[in-house]
Amino acid sequence: LKEENALLRSKINKLQILSETQADKMRKLEKKLEENKIKEEKEAQDLEAMVQHVEQNLQLMTKRAAKAENSAAKLRQENAQLQAELRNSRLEKEALQAGQAGLAVAKQNAEVALQHLLQVTTSSRASIRQLLSGAESLQLVADLLKSIDRITEVADDGQ
After folding, report:
1. Which UniProt key words apply to this protein (predicted)?
2. CA 119 – CA 112 distance, rounded (Å)
3. Counts of helices then strands in the chain (DSSP H, E)
């Protein structure tokens, strides 16, 4: 009985030691579980904060994209207006160049007409001088004929 008692006590001691060891293990596991829960909660909070940050960035990028699209549309419209202005300016330039060419032709024609007028004027003056000279010559011939006529009359009268 003593042996059995000692054996049972030995088993009880072993079981108590085993029980204490398992209780220690249990406390350590509970502590580790608590630490893991805290760690998971922190990771979940960090993940939630990251998700919120990503959502904010996404909203900001969406706003920027919308703003960029509006800017691009305005720039396309402005570009179209500038293209139209450029076409109009080119047409104006061509019209002005054509007008200047026409003006140059008109100026050249006026210059040619002026040269002809100067030639006609010079020629007319020469013709007028010749006419005056011819008229003077005719006047002289007429005077001469009158003189001859008088001389013949006087000679006829004197005979």
Report:
1. Coiled coil
2. 11
3. 1, 0
Token duo for residue 129: 């001088």
Please state, for a pLDDT cut of 90, what percent of the chain lies above it: 55
Tell me the C-alpha distance between 81 and 85, whole Å.
Answer: 6
Output the six-digit token pair for 15: 């079981």
What one-character-per-residue DSSP string does 95-156 give? Answer: HHHHHHHHHHHHHHHHHHHHHHHHHHHHHHHHHHHHHHHHHHHHHHHHHHHHHHHHHHHHHH
Q: What angle do CA 110, 111, 116 make, to 5 degrees?
A: 95
3-state secondary structure of 132: helix
Give the largest CA-CA distance in the chain. Answer: 226
Predicted model pTM? 0.43
Give the distance from CA 79 to its chain's centroid: 6
Q: How far apart are CA 57 and CA 51, in angstroms?
A: 10
Q: CA distances (Å), 85 to each of 28, 74, 79, in order?
A: 83, 16, 10
Distance CA 24, CA 9 (A): 22
